[in-house]
Amino acid sequence: MLARTSHHLFQPLLYQVATGILSEGVIAPTTRDVLAEQRNASVLLGEVTTVDLEARTVTASAIGQQTTYSYDSLIVAAGADQSWFGNDHFAEFAPGMKTIDDALELRGRIYGAFEMAEVAAASGRHDLVERLLTFVVVGAGPTGVEMAGQLAELSKRTLAKEFRHIDPSSARIILLDAADEVLASFGSTLAGRTARDLTRLGIEVRLGTKVVDVDAEGLTVESRDGSQERIEATTKVWAAGVQANPLTRQLAEQSGAELDRAGRIKVNPDLTLPGHPEVFAIGDLAAVEGVPGVAQGAIQGGKHAAGQILRRLRGEETGQPFSYFDKGSMATISRFRAVMKRGRLELTGYPAWVAWLAVHLFYIIGFKSQVQTLMHWAVSFVGRDRSERTVTEQQVLARLALEYLGEDFLRTSLRKPPGAAPSAPATDS
Ligand SMILES: Cc1cc2nc3c(=O)[nH]c(=O)nc-3n(C[C@H](O)[C@H](O)[C@H](O)COP(=O)(O)OP(=O)(O)OC[C@H]3O[C@@H](n4cnc5c(N)ncnc54)[C@H](O)[C@@H]3O)c2cc1C
To answer: What residues form the membrane-spanning segments (predicted)?
Structure first.
């Protein structure tokens, strides 16, 4: 198991780390711990930079050191990255939510905005307060809906009584999407119900609205009729799109497989690459008819690929097509409110919320994390508090600082003798 992080991440609960309900350790146990009992599995840290299908090797880099590994069978499951639809510069001011780093950065930005608003109000700079207390979530899929719902609860329940110069419950929360519905993949009945629930929570739901520019102090949006509007908002969250991991380009070039618009690689029905029965591409980076980019697609794809490899090792026939079983979709809106769809069954409100809790608790890895999650949920959903509100300056600044210092920074600084001065940035731009 070769991966660029040492943890396994349960992405569906990232928004709860970002809003202070859960700690990062609960949703991201170390992969080494998860696989500790599996004696034939070895866990290695490394960012895969090159896959050579002809030579059957994978080259990975860990903290500046490159290693090449050979394989008999390869499963590529490197997932997807956030997509800003060709506007990567938006990321500076509107971070996405795909990693633990992203969630912690967002936590710092969200709680930091309330702190800065209090400072502004206390020092008489009331003109800044509205902008600091405006939160915009871009993308009204499950992640955006859950994030907007939690921002509303945070401002109205958790923080309501803690500040002296601002009223946190007056925070403006805007959920934007270029589509005509929230949760478009859930069908119009659940979409309509979700939009009504969000509005009742005080969230402004603005559909048919596209983001055309983002900066430190706000964003510009465009309506269907082409009219543009400026929204002043310090905190922006990007939950709008994903792009398959760039490794798919290498795999496509070498195998002749096609990529779809999201950069996902089109695989054979058995999830292998054309001409390479020993290489599987699964999960968010694979394009398979009828399989959505959700956790079940990845989990079931992983089981299929592993099953195929075992069959080959046992000398049995391989090449059976992957068949996907849709276990349904769900999203929480706020405390006690969720929507759920499974086949023709549609649930809303409290029953859907309880089902959501049960399913997510079941999929959290490890008994210890499950107990901790239950306790944190009790604190936030029965009570009003959040257990994980600590934020640090580095949470907010580290990503941008590392980008500024450039790619060579890590490698060169690690080679420096102790006490040497840090490298200067590559450019002063
Ligand atoms: C915020 C959020 C909420 C979600 N909510 C839900 C939900 O409620 N229900 C649901 O079903 N799905 C949900 N999803 C989608 C679900 O998490 C994904 O479909 C699933 O994780 C895909 O699994 P995967 O194994 O393909 O990729 P991932 O889980 O993304 O795993 C890919 C791994 O590969 C590593 N990696 C990437 N590139 C390299 C490289 N070059 N070298 C080494 N390692 C690399 C990554 O660090 C990562 O550990 C959500 C996703 C997000 C981001």
So the answer is: 350-367
pTM over 0.70? The answer is yes
Q: Evaluate: CB of 141 within 6 angstroms of ligand 1.
A: no
pLDDT (tens digit, 9 = 90+) per residue, 345-370? 999 999 999 999 999 999 999 999 99
Query: 15 CA to middle of ligand 1, Å?
Result: 14
Separation of 285 CA from ligand 1 center, angstroms? 9
Query: Minimal CA–CA distance to 370: which of 378, 341, 382, 178?
Result: 378
Mutate which of 11, 82, 284 for ligand 1 pocket (most atoms within 8 A of beta carbon): 11
Domain assignments of the chain as residue spans, ordered by start? 46-82+243-313
CATH homologous superfamily, domain 46-82+243-313: FAD/NAD(P)-binding domain (3.50.50.60)
Contact 257 CB / ligand 1 (< 6 Å):
no
**b/e map of 303-340 (b: 16 or more CB within 10 Å)?**
ebbeebbeebeeeeebeeebeeeeebbbbbbbbebbbb
Which of 164, 194, 167 lies closest to 179, judged by CA? 194
